[in-house]
Amino acid sequence: MTSPISVDDLTMAHPVYTLSLTAAQRCTLEWLTFNGALYAPLAADPEEIAKDCGNSVSTVYEALNRLTALRLVQRDGPEYRVNPRFFFAQNPELAQLVLEALQAPDVEPDERAQQPRRTSPADARRRREVRPVS
Fold first, then answer.
1. What pLDDT sits at residue 19?
2. Quick check: 16 and 86 in contact, CB under 8 A?
3. What is the reported pTM?
4. pLDDT (tens digit, 9 = 90+) per residue, 106-122?
5. What share of residues in the chain are helix, strand, coil (percent, to 5)?
6. Please, what sign has the CA dihedral across residues 71, 75, 76, 81?
């Protein structure tokens, strides 16, 4: 039998403030998070990150290397993805919401949900009329 998952299981064992991140590393991590690397791998251009963060390109490369070494960021070729544990460490209330969603029972459709959707007479007329786009 497995033990129940807790918020601590979704977050990081070492808080971000204990990692001694530089301003460039924090800015690079924030840039990746803001641009969607939390949800899907992102092909990050270090020159664009450097321009947006006000750093040199070499500083961004160093920041990406350190973030990858710390496993705050996962790298697959030219694509980077932010570790979800970092996000949940920053947002423990969302981690709690995820845990509650995982433990909640599934929604069961009833008999009425199986019936076709009823439409009003006005809806039915609208669907029959083809209106030109002007």
1. 85
2. yes
3. 0.67
4. 888 888 888 877 777 77
5. 55, 5, 40
6. positive
